[in-house]
Amino acid sequence: MAGGVESIYFTVTVSDKSLRITDKLPFPEPPPTEFSLKVGDAKREVAVTTLGNNVGSVDVHVSKDEKDWFAHEENMEVEAGSTYNINDKAFPPPPPPPSKSKQEAAKEDTKN
């Protein structure tokens, strides 16, 4: 069974983001495919190289600003015709809200 180039599909969940998909099977690796998706957008088709069993491998990176990229999953096994939902697991957690200074907290205590 010979491999070939097959279509896989991506959607996003949780938040809007940009995806960078790198096909890992051809050598040398082709340039990544980059695109932005919003939650609820139609799935996006990406062509990937597959082996005889219609399975390929991709690196998936995500970004909110197309400057800082984070690895969602590397060497992700993908199957021809399948759809993959990309969530926010790769993004660092948001910073905690700024805490009140002791002076501000003391002022609030005296108001009560």
UniProtKB/TrEMBL annotation:
It comes from the Bacteria. Residues 80-112 are annotated as: Disordered. Residues 101-112 have a biased composition (Basic and acidic residues). This is Uncharacterized protein.
